[in-house]
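step 4 of 6: structure.
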Amino acid sequence: MTVVMAIVVGVLYTTGTYLLLQRTLTRVILGIVLLGHGANLLLLMVGGLPGAAPLSGPDGAPADAADPLPQALVLTAIVISFGVVAFLLTLAYRSWLTRRDDEVEDDVEDRRIAALRGTEHPEEYAVSPGETGDRP
Amino acid sequence: MTALVPLAIVAPLLAAAACLLAHRRVAWQRPLSLLGVTVSLASAAALLAGVERGGTVVVTVGGWPAPYGIVLVVDLFSALLLTVSLATVLGVLVFAIGQLGLVVEARFFHPLYCILTAGVTASFVTGDLFNLFVAFEVMLIASYALLALGNPDATRSAMTYVVVSLVSSTLFLTGVAFVYAATGTVNMADLAGKVAALPEGVRTGLALYFLVVFGIKAAIFPLFFWLPDSYPTAPASVTAVFAGLLTKVGVYAIVRTQTIVFGSGANGPDGVLLTLAAATMLVGVLGAVAQDDIKRILSFHIISQIGYMIFGLALYSVAGIAATTLYIVHHIPVKTALFLAGGMVEKVTGSGALSRVGGLARRTPVTAGLFLVPALSLGGIPPFSGFFGKLTLVQAGIAAAQHLVVAVSLVVSLLTLFSMTKIWAGAFWGEPQAPDPHTDTSATVRVPRPMVAGAGGVVAVTLVVALGVSPLWNMAERAAQGLLTRSGYVQAVLGDAGAEVEP
């Protein structure tokens, strides 16, 4: 069981990282979602083996109970990642509304340096600091 | 005294809730957010006075005893940073009221700003690694929204910032899982004992892991790339509070975890950290020299100043960490004041590019004065606060025989002064430029009074730091002692029962 979970966590981290490196915004967001799931699952696993519900009655806590602390931590982390992903989707939607494009834009500074190197007349290609512009 | 700690967090949160309820009326939101932040500042100041006399204050939230329940811990280090941060936050809030006026964005600014304040406060007082993660998230979520507020063009840079921050948060959560797997606890005081019992490889690995996690937040070399890209696009008040506080919370987390939790530096100065500190200083300042826009220059300077703070920590001596503490205390208001002055320049001229502004010393002498004081302070000119920050750092560095890094820090200091002179000569001296035809601001625009009051208040904080440097240094030394010896902190949190909770 633990080995299966370890593999699942590994796959989630790998695919999450891969998607994070893509240029499309929706894939980046999916990557963050998967990375978050991986981290949550990892946190749940470090509490040890699954066990009985961690409820303590008059007889005291059962010896085979699962560790309740990671469960509490994961619950908090899930709520946080839910809120963050909702915000990211809004941001991506606004980016799409203003630009009709889902790709992450080039860094303005990078383009300016590339323009300086690539031409005799850098002024033609230079961009002002506030301007985002289109991709070349 | 114990009621003050939660109050400092809850007051801005309640203010945020009240601001959301009053979201149609900016005029009502202003007193609400001002009240929330002021209450928070007052409790922080009272805590500083109390901790200075009576030692570390510990609050067990929910009543569960220390290693299991949630604890809030205020030691001298926390109390110092908390007070100076909240004083700066209050100044920026006054500035923002003047800058934003009654535009639609102001409706969302107030609640978000209060949540940001609560997050920063919670980061400084938490005594628990997981709660530090939660506090970071509260702070960062508010910062994402603030950065993206109002300006559709800012979406790209906001995206970079959000994605980088989220990756570092995920790494942080993974790190918490690693620590829990290795020790079975997330309480910092409890960890102090349990991490020491781990094999050396695991301990070093975890310490380096957390250095990377917080290194992204603090923008140390080579993890700083996101900062100059994202900060300059936001409104001046937002950039100012980010510049003053967010990276410093990262530095705070590095200092806290490396000393209290991991007890690094038992073998004296840390070569890795020293190298990173020198590289951070150099890269930041060289980046600044190449820039033309005021906000971009200042953004690169944040990075180079972070290097100084890491330098003090890397020495792992009382003098070194005390110098780091003093440096953070000096840096928070100074950096904020510089960005506020930059914002005033933009308000008057409609541009922050040095090639498009000029002769402002004659047009708005107030702005010039409010820029000059923190600029000289950042350059390390006596009698301003930056001089004492650098003096104590250099003394600590020489005492630890780290002459190379000391030399680097002095060269960087000179280049910092050069950068500040460049802004001064470009923006405040020279002939006034013709107004930019692309902006509708006319040359007669006056800086609104609240902006002057807010920036003036933050500059006053920097002067207070300079005037009160002797008692501050005394407190910083005691704070550093507490961080390095650890026993006082652990005993305050775990009490005498601390010895009994061994696994």
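step 5 of 6: annotate
 - Chain B has one domain: 4-431+442-499.
 - The longest strand of chain B covers residues 57-61.
step 6 of 6: archive
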